[in-house]
Amino acid sequence: MRSFTDLADLTAAKGEHLGYSAWREVTQEQVAMFADATDDHQWIHVDPVRAAESPFGGTVAHGYLTLALLPALMTEIFQVEGITMGVNFGLDKVRFPAPVRVGSRVRGGAELTDVKNSPAGKLVKVKMTVEVEGQKRAACVAETLSLYVA
Hints:
- Pfam families: MaoC_dehydratas.
- It comes from Streptosporangium carneum.
- By secondary structure, this protein is an alpha+beta fold.
- It is 26% helix and 39% strand.
């Protein structure tokens, strides 16, 4: 994990790749719980028998579930000390180039692409790429925005 002592230290790393999270398995239980939480019970996510006949050969995670993993993945990659809080400010761009098959393992990679001054602190853009083990194309590429307050 990369640790920044303060916002100045973080700002100095603009343009750098910050590292990778650990690999984690995406389970059918997670997918089912996400389906219940979002009322998105499309068969490709929750019906293993029917999904086995699909081009994916089994169930796949919701794209938004993959996106929802980003905060957990980011906390494994880097931390900023010397702040009073960090809050999710939004997203600039999100793409889902490839599916995440249930049972596969994913990890996140983080690139610090921008740091801007804000009246409250620093607005930080991190390009997160979610990789699937053994798969060439990323499952998710998202430009995350976080507001860090000193």
